[in-house]
Amino acid sequence: MNYHPSWAPLFNQYEFDIEDIYSGPEIIYPKKEYVFRVFQMDVKDIIIVLLGQDPYHNPGQAHGLSFSVPEDQKIPPSLKNIYKELQIEFPERKYEFTHGNLEKWFSKEKIFLLNASLTVIKNKPGSQMKIWEKFTNDVIKFISDNNPNCVFLLLGNFAKAKEKFITNNHRVIKGVHPSPLSAHNGFFNSGIFKQIEEKLGKQIDWSN
How far apart are CA 101 and CA 8, in angstroms? Predict the structure, then answer.
């Protein structure tokens, strides 16, 4: 497992048999080397936590960062709506989004793109949530305990239910999920990204 040493106190409490998860007949996403990718960031460097539910379950999409896909993949609907809202909120910045890879958000802007489940069976969303739920709940609490200055962005009811693991809950911003099923019911024109910047007291470069 390749993770930043700052996570060691948490990882030392767990024994993961990744080979076992991938040993069955099912196809599992993402590739093994991407499962713990998000933990390559120092916990103290995190500025924003953006919580997703589980990895994309179609071929070629999941690569270890929530909401993100490689550049050769079509931009997923929820991410497309996130981009649209950023353009609504910051027209003066003239953001143009040509792909769905959020690597820059992760590496440069220090946005921690965490999924509540780190793996998924092909074409079966939520299929491995039980394997990861306790661990990722502990991840949220660990971040909260070790980085009191970051902001947690919880979009949708699933993510909002994780607020109970956040001790510094004055750093939480909640909103409607950007899914096409719900985005028109309060996500668009919500000003949620402006709220993040106000809470942080700094501007984020949301370009990719």
Answer: 28
Sign of the torsion angle spanned by Cα atoms 202, 161, 129, 19: positive
Question: Tens of pLDDT along 72-100?
Answer: 999 999 999 999 999 999 999 999 999 99
One of 45, 54, 138, 205 is an active-site residue; which one? 54
Verify whether residue 54 is a known catalytic residue. yes
**Which has the closest alpha carbon to 80: 95, 92, 97, 56?**
97
Look-up of token digits 């995190």: 46
pLDDT per residue as tens digits for the range 103-136: 999 999 999 999 999 999 999 999 999 999 999 9
The secondary structure element, H or E, covering residue 79 is: helix 77-89
Closest by CA to 56, choosing from 150, 132, 126, 144, is: 126
Closest by CA to 136, choosing from 119, 151, 154, 115, is 115
Whole-number pLDDT of residue 61: 97
Domain that holds residue 86: 5-200
pLDDT at 95: 97
Answer yes or no: is 205 within a domain: no
Residue 208 lies in a domain: no
Strand, coil or helix: what is 83?
helix
